[in-house]
Design brief:
By secondary structure, the chain is of the alpha+beta class. It is 41% helix and 25% strand. The protein is built from 14 helices and 18 strands. It has helices at residues 2-5, 26-32, 36-39, 51-60, 113-130, 136-151, 191-197, 215-220, 253-290, 301-318, 332-339, 341-358, 382-397, 425-441; strands spanning 11-15, 21-24, 74-79, 85-96, 103-111, 155-162, 165-172, 183-185, 201-203, 224-232, 235-244, 322-329, 364-369, 372-378, 402-403, 406-407, 412-418, 447-449. The strands form four sheets. A six-stranded antiparallel beta sheet has the order 8-7-6-11-10-9, with helices on both faces. Strands 2-1-5-4-3 form a five-stranded antiparallel beta sheet. Strands 13-14-12-17-18 form a five-stranded mixed beta sheet, sandwiched between helices. Helix 6 packs antiparallel against helix 9 and helix 12 crosses helix 13. The protein is elongated.
Length: 455
């Protein structure tokens, strides 16, 4: 009976109704590590990694009631003589002899360990990449651990390559000998072959390969290597690679595709993160621009109103002091009429520069409208505000400002308003506006404060 199955490309076991082996083929001995004589007469229980599988299959397949013809393919974990295990895809069937109708059962077994391991790795990769609980660094770490386990290569590296320099971004090493930031000449690494080929390269036994003279082998003695390029937006970023100081099994096509898939995910994720950072930068810049006056670069009225609202809340809640100053250029219309609007714009920009240089970190200065500016001074008393404003207006008055080769003196009228616990923005700014009008009436180029009596 054994001769019938000898040329089948699968391990074959023929058993009687007690599930004792009556015939095998050569591949069965290769798969399980037993000589034919050791298998004959043995109950197949010894070939199952889990005894429960032996019992279950006896009920579902290997009996007269259900084992008519070939059954469906199923996968079982088998155990070899040396204790190692493998996943076997099995198809079972029934043989009935023509002479007396004796029933035998057979199983045809194919080793699919690598296939099931690859499927498991793909499922784990999906879990890693889709997890919302892991950040990018944690996902890379999980992929490196998955790769070292699946390929049987204990060293895993995610690298970045710039010009001819190889830099470790993240790494798994049994002795923690590799840390982020470590740098090597690309030519001294096996990854130089990946870069040259622009594709996956693998060497399962470097000493017996064409790269046995490579500097990496001489320096580090790495006997096995599997690496793939990481490509981001069409450009090489670096590599994902795994290695070992001892030779490994030959790499299969599945291994090649799996490391390529790992690297492709990293490339896509790096590109996504880069796009996200650029988007965040753009969004932040747009938000910043939305708060600025385009001519002077100072804050605009909208932003100042937000600041005023927040500071008035602090005044009300914590009884903090707050002073605002409304500043208006004197004779600004005459400046524009005499020398042109460009000169007027230059005067406004000069004020922005001078005030920004002199302001305290806690102050906020905004262009309130036209040639008017509002200065918000939190936790400041009237005396302190007056000293600061006197220095500011004096600096503007003595600035070296020229229009068409004519020196022009720039002066400002300033009105102060002191915030109270029940103030609104309109009330506070209106008091500063009244005080500024008083400064204009007093001859300009002066500072007035809204008095308590008027308030």
């Amino acid at each position: 009976m054994a001769q019938v199955f000898e040329h089948i490309d699968a391990a074959v076991l023929v058993v009687d109704q007690d599930r004792k082996v009556v015939a095998t083929n050569g591949l069965a001995s290769d798969f399980f590590g037993y000589d034919e004589g050791e298998l004959l007469g043995q109950e197949t229980r010894i070939l199952f990694d889990d005894p429960a599988d032996f019992e279950e299959l006896g009920k579902s397949r290997y009996n007269n009631e259900v084992a008519e013809g070939f059954g469906e393919r199923f996968v079982v974990r088998y155990r070899r003589k040396d204790g190692s295990v493998f996943d076997g895809a099995t198809v079972s069937g029934l043989i009935r002899t023509a002479e007396d109708g004796t029933v035998y059962f057979f199983g045809m077994i194919t080793n699919v360990s690598r296939q099931t391991a690859a499927e498991s790795a793909l499922n784990q990769l999906h879990d890693i990449t889709s997890s919302r609980d892991l950040n990018f660094e944690q996902r890379v770490d999980a992929i490196l651990k998955l790769g070292t386990k699946h390929f049987g290569l204990p060293i895993g590296i995610f690298s970045k390559i710039t010009n001819e320099q190889y830099e470790v971004q993240q790494a798994i090493h049994p002795e923690n000998a590799l840390t982020p930031g470590m740098s090597f000449d690309l030519g001294d690494t096996y990854c130089s072959h990946v870069v040259k080929a622009d594709d996956v390269r693998g060497f399962h036994h470097v000493a017996q390969s064409e790269i046995h003279t490579h500097p990496c082998y001489k320096s580090f003695g790495l006997e096995a290597y599997l690496g793939a390029p990481i490509v981001t937006d069409g450009e090489r970023y670096g590599t994902l690679n795994f290695s070992s100081p001892v030779p490994a099994r030959e790499f299969t096509g599945q291994d090649i595709e799996l490391v390529r898939l790992f690297a492709a995910w990293l490339g896509h994720e790096i590109a996504r993160m880069r796009d996200w950072r650029e988007l965040e930068t753009t969004r932040a810049e747009l938000e910043r621009l939305a708060t600025l006056d385009p001519l002077t670069g100072l804050f605009n009225r909208r932003h100042m109103e937000d600041c005023l609202r927040a500071e008035l809340e602090r005044v009300k809640r914590y009884n903090k002091s707050l002073v605002v100053a409304l500043l208006d250029f004197d004779n600004f219309k005459d400046l524009n009429d005499s020398y042109g609007h460009d000169t007027g714009d230059d005067a406004l920009k000069l004020f922005a520069k001078v005030s920004a240089e002199m302001m305290r970190d806690t102050d906020v200065i905004a262009r309130w409208g036209g040639e008017e500016f509002l200065i918000l001074m939190p936790e400041t008393k009237a005396a302190g505000a007056l000293k600061y404003l006197e220095r500011l207006t004096d600096r503007m008055r003595h600035s070296d400002f020229h229009a068409k080769d004519v020196e022009v003196k720039l002066t400002l009228s300033v009105g102060l308003g002191i915030a109270g616990p029940d103030d609104t923005i309109d009330k506070l700014v209106s008091r500063a506006d009244v005080a500024m009008y008083e400064a204009k009436q007093a001859g300009r180029d002066t500072i007035r404060m809204y008095s308590e009596d008027e308030r």
